[in-house]
UniProtKB/TrEMBL annotation:
Keywords for the protein's UniProt record, in alphabetical order: Cell membrane, Membrane, Transmembrane, Transmembrane helix
Coiled-coil region: none
GO cellular component terms attached to this protein's record: plasma membrane
SUPFAM superfamilies found in the cross-reference section: MFS general substrate transporter
Chain segments annotated as transmembrane: 7-23, 43-63, 75-94, 100-125, 137-158, 164-183, 217-238, 250-270, 282-302, 308-332, 344-367, 379-399
Name of the protein: Nitrate/nitrite transporter NarK
Primary localisation category: membrane
InterPro entries: MFS, MFS_dom, MFS_Efflux_Transporters, MFS_trans_sf
Organism of this sequence: Thermostaphylospora chromogena
Cross-referenced Pfam families: MFS_1
CDD domains (UniProt xref): MFS
Domain (Major facilitator superfamily (MFS) profile) ranges: 8-408
Localization per Swiss-Prot or TrEMBL: Cell membrane
Length: 426
């Protein structure tokens, strides 16, 4: 196995994720065009985003189970083609129900992609390098937002809606062909992973994955580190900065740019620390969650408008939380056998997105209940919901980590099975 082969497999797999991120974010650059094309309200358009993420989140476990059964290569190809079908349907749609169905397809295909690419990473790279390569995959894949923000937007505002989304669909088909040609589930000569053969075995694999404390540790880790950054970037960050702190839209957008840059710097750091000192991964995660809570406390207790440097510090810390969430996949990988890693990673990846959706909805409910508009005081009360999630996840991390260590110690102390004796004839 040559190094060029390894890097080619990774590059094509990562490109599939990058194009998937483009599909995921493509509707964001088409908001005003969608209002005109589908005669939709702003509330309906925001529902597109929520529905797409709901589909993505709740498909993680079924997709993880299919990943263990069918392998990463088939799942990446299926995800790319499903997203391409969604983009093609969106290109040809002129009614709101068809557009909704198209975005459901995009969310479903998106769910197939990331955890499958991570499975390719863990199969092709040495264990010591997997945490760093996981971070690099997540980091570089986010540049798919650039594809939607620049070339796709240019097509949308030039040739128009249909050519833009047909082009996106064609790119999805192209990346599926590249995956078929280059990517393999494992290097040549590597032992095949035994797959579940019956529905009962598949469900038993799900049960065993959940009962493994390391899987629950991964779930709580992903939930506690990721949700705050996702809520901030997805929905409530810009309204909070503009209405709560009196920033202009341009200044608020500059803070989001700082978030992206900080995430690019944090990813390799987290990957290297996790790979070099795996026994300290839990303390790394707890420290990041504690730092998020500490900086948010400083922001919420500071009379608005908060100093610019404090808001910059907030988005930098949130970016580190996003990078730390990928440590969850290391837990899922190292505490589960290869035959169940897809299911375990799917369980972990569900945590942060479900928490983000619940917190985003809860913030909206609190703001409406207060009835004071988008003021700093009402936002501060609404953002305080986060503390309940941090408390829950920290408790889950500590309890799961104790159980995982106890199980590992028991397994290490268990005497090895006796070697089979040969039976022969005198």
């Amino acid at each position: 196995m040559t190094r060029c082969r390894v890097w080619a497999v990774w590059a094509v797999g990562m490109s599939a994720y990058l194009v998937g991120v483009m599909h995921r974010t493509s509707f964001g650059v088409a908001g005003l065009d969608a209002v005109e094309r589908f005669h939709a309200t702003s509330a309906a358009l925001s529902g597109f985003v929520v529905l797409q993420i709901l589909v993505y989140a709740f498909l993680q476990v079924p997709v993880g189970m299919m990943l263990d059964r069918f392998g990463a290569r088939r799942m990446i190809v299926a995800g790319a083609l499903i997203m391409a079908a969604g983009q093609l349907l969106l290109a040809l749609s002129t009614s709101l129900p068809l557009a909704v169905a198209a975005r459901v397809l995009v969310g479903a295909g998106d769910a197939f992609t990331f955890i499958s690419v991570l499975t390719v990473v863990s199969a092709w790279f040495p264990p010591r390098r997997v945490p760093l390569m996981t971070q690099l995959t997540g980091l570089l894949g986010q540049f798919g937002q650039v594809l939607s923000a620049i070339p796709l937007a240019a097509l949308l505002h030039g040739p128009g809606w249909t050519p833009a989304f047909v082009s996106a669909a064609a790119l999805g088909v192209a990346v599926a062909i590249a995956v078929i040609a280059v990517v393999r589930d494992r290097p040549a000569g590597a032992p095949a992973v035994a797959a579940a053969e019956s529905p009962r075995e598949v469900l038993d694999g799900l049960r065993r994955s959940w009962l493994e404390p390391g899987t629950r540790l991964a779930l709580w880790t992903h939930m506690g580190t990721q949700f705050s950054a996702t809520v901030f970037m997805l929905l409530w960050g810009v309204p909070y900065l503009v209405a709560g702190h009196g920033m202009s839209t341009g200044a608020a957008s500059s803070l989001l740019t700082i978030f992206v840059i900080a995430g690019a710097a944090a990813g390799p750091v987290m990957g290297e620390l996790s790979g070099r000192r795996p026994e300290r991964r839990v303390w790394l995660v707890i420290s990041v969650i504690g730092l998020n809570a500490l900086v948010w406390t400083a922001v919420l207790l500071t009379p608005a408008p908060a100093p610019y440097w404090l808001l910059v510090l907030l988005v930098v810390v949130l970016a580190f939380g996003g990078a730390a969430s990928l440590v969850a996949f290391d837990f899922a990988r190292t505490f589960n056998p290869r035959c169940r890693q897809g299911t375990a990673v799917g369980i972990a990846n569900m945590g942060g997105f479900i928490a983000a959706l619940l917190v985003a909805l809860a913030i909206g409910v609190v703001l409406d209940a207060i009835g004071a508009g988008y003021s700093a005081a009402s936002f501060h009360l609404a953002w305080a919901i986060q503390y309940a999630v941090w408390a829950l996840t920290l408790a889950g991390i500590v309890l799961s980590w104790r159980k995982a260590r106890r199980r590992s110690a028991e397994a290490a102390a268990r005497p090895p099975l006796p070697a089979p004796t040969a039976v022969g004839h005198a």
